[in-house]
Design a protein that fits this description.
Largest sheet: none
Distance between the termini: 39 Å
Order of helices and strands: HHHH
Shape: flat
Helix content: 55-70%
Structural class: mainly alpha
Strand content: under 5%
Length: 70
C-alpha cells in the first residue's frame, strides 16, 4: 500500500490499519529494537514492581486522571 492510497482511506480505516500493523509487531517482540536507555528504564520499572507489586495505579484510574486534567 502506498501513502496516497492510505490518505484516501477514512480515519476509521487508517486507524484499523495502524492497529493491524501494531498487532503484527506485538507478535514478534524480539524483533523490536530497544535502546540501552530503554532497556535500563524497563529493568528499573520491573525491579520496582517486584519490590512492591501493589504500588501501582490501575489503568482505569490513570485514564480518569488524564481525562480530568484541565
Amino acid at each position: 500500500m502506498i501513502p496516497q492510497e492510505i490518505m484516501k482511506m477514512s480515519p476509521a480505516e487508517r486507524l484499523q490499519l495502524v492497529e493491524e500493523i501494531w498487532d503484527s509487531l506485538a507478535d514478534l517482540p524480539e524483533s523490536i529494537p530497544v535502546s540501552p536507555a530503554q532497556r535500563a528504564e524497563l529493568d528499573q520499572r520491573l525491579e520496582k514492581y517486584r519490590q512492591d507489586p501493589q504500588g501501582g495505579i490501575p489503568w482505569d484510574e490513570v485514564k480518569r486522571q488524564i481525562l480530568n486534567r484541565k
